[in-house]
Every structure is written in structure tokens, then in C-alpha cells.
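Amino acid chain:
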Amino acid sequence: MQDIIIVGGGMVGLSLALMLAKQKIQVKLLEAIKYPEYTEQELTYHSSFDARNSALSRRSVQIYQKLGLWEKLQQHATPILQVHITEEGGFGKARLLAEQEKVESFGQVIENAWLGRVLLTQVRQNPNIELIDNVQVTQLVQDNDTVTITAKQGDQTLQLSSALVVAADGRDSFCRKALGIGVDEHDYEQVAIVTTVQTSKPHNHVGFERFSPLGPLALLPLPGEYRRSVVFPVVKGTEQQWLGEDQPFLDLLQKTYGDRAGRFEKTGRRFCYPLSQVLSHKQAVGRVVLMGNAAHTIHPVAGQGFNLCLRDADVLVRYLTEHEWTPETLLAYEQSRLKDQARVIKFCDSVVRGFSNNHPLLKFARNAGLLAFDFVPGIKPLVANYAMGLKA
């Protein structure tokens, strides 16, 4: 069996490489940035595993369990046992309890820097994966049987060929542009401020999703009884005022969340990430398939983006192990994923747009809906299963 080339060694590319390697498929993994060398306790940021956090759904946890990685990841993850949903200035509220839904947890929160470190360590140790970092792809061409990648690594020019290439090179994908694939893009005109905080109350494995005029805010549990991750959107252009002194940002969190988490006592360094939606017009062209943010970059509300990408990767591996590596197989894979992708993309975009509209009637309807969520039979299990990635 021929090698598969993966362009892009972020969390999706690394995860996919490990999935393929488990099936005894040889992988060449290309990454533009030089990977860090880790010491035993050091937590080093990389452009793809940065200060953000991932809320891994139960389906994602199951995928990593199949890879034999969950025991290592679990050391750095925290289960979500309850989810509280509220709107700032509103009367509605909804709760999901893992115990009531008869599940171990709704998911696990892990810092991307730890997730990336574990994945990279496993990739480096896997004999079926050749890792080539600090390399810039400059050309992608294909014919009926082969895809050829040209890349620069320092002063050296590399030329690699394969029967199949996976482009997992991010929202501004070079490979997607080289294939002439267009995108639909929407800028939410927001920037997410991401950090970790310490609170006076223990998190007790509760995740808060709170909606404000700025959009959805997330406060999620992290390892350590009083540590939580924060995702706080602000209007683009106003983010700098929250990146300097700590106290104004802590005061902002306190005003937003009240006493739900107790006092916001400390905050780590804040990082900023623009929020947008980028959807590729195609995900498979010839012998190249788009994966991860190259295929669909979505708003991080409810933490669905990375989980969706992992489901894509899991299904792609199944298609490649059960069928011949042909353009028709890649098109069949693409068709099989459209329904799940469309559902998640529509949900995330609708939540952001719906809760950002502060019209009094719409706000009343939203809060009435949150109240109904707690009382209408059958809604909670359905939403919980979708959130856990079990209805994909």
C-alpha cells in the first residue's frame, strides 16, 4: 500500500496520522512550523496547539480510546458533569446533568497545548509515520493516478508523490487554493479572548455557557479544583483594553457571571483569536481531500469544531481501509459527511446570530425556550446526544 501524505500537522493532522498508522498505512506528515522539543514538565505553545482549550465530546474520547491514547490524555483532562446555560440579563436557564442522562460525562476539557504534546509525542514514536516539519509546500499538482507535492525545507527542495493527499493545512489552506476551491466566508466581527482563571469556588466539573450581547461566553472546568478556562468574545478592535492589567478583565468576568463561580481571583495571560466561518465549496477534488479547518472553520460556540473534524477523520479512515484509494472513494466520503457537517455548522451559526440579537421579543423567546428546555420531555436526551457527538 502506498504512502498517504498529510499536509498540516495541527491537532487534526496529528490525530489522522495516528488513525491511519494504526491501520498499518504509511504516512508522510508535513508541517510548516518547526515542532517544539519538550522537557518533562514544560508546556510549550505551538501555532496549532496554543492557549485555547478543546471540549472533547464523548465520541471524540471514544476515538482516542480506540487509538490507545486516552489514558495519557486523561491525565490532563477534566470531565464535564453538568452544563448550565443562561443569558445575561435574562430569566431563562437550562441545565444538563450527566447523572440524569445516564452518561459518565458530557465530555472532557483539555488544554490544546497538552493535547498537541501527547499527539506529537506519539507521532514521533510511531514507525509508520514520517514527520517532516519546518517545511513549506509551494506546489500541488495531480494527474489521474498521483498527487505530487513540492516543498521547501530551508535551502532544500523536496518532491513527494502519493496516490492520496489530505490537506489539513488550516483555514487559509494553501492546498485548497492550489486546487482552485472557493470558500464562503463570514466574519463575525468578534475576537475571542482566551485564558485560564482561578476562582474562589471549586468548579465541581460544571461548565457554564452564558450568552451576552457580545455572543456566547464559555467558562469550563480544568484540572485543578479552582482552575477554569475562559472564552470571552469582544467586538473586533476593542480587545486590546482587556489584554493589559489583570483586574479590569477579572472585574468584567465578575460582572458577567455574578457569584456563580465565586470570586475571579487570578487570570493568566490573555490571547486573542478572530472569530469567523469559512466553508469550502468542495472537500474532495481528484485524489486530494480537505480536512479540519481547511474544509470548515466554524464558530467555537459549544466546542463543536474540533469534534466535528475528528468525526470526519474517523470516517475517512474507515473509507480508506474498506475501499480502493480512488477519487470516487473520496467523493463518497465527502457525501457521507455532509449531513453531520451541515447540522453542526447551522447550529453554531444560528446560536451565535440568534443570541447576538437583543430585540426584546427575541430575547423573551430565547429565555422562554431555555425554561422549556428544563421541562419538555425528550429534549434533553436529544440535545445531550448531539452535544456528545453520538448522533452523528
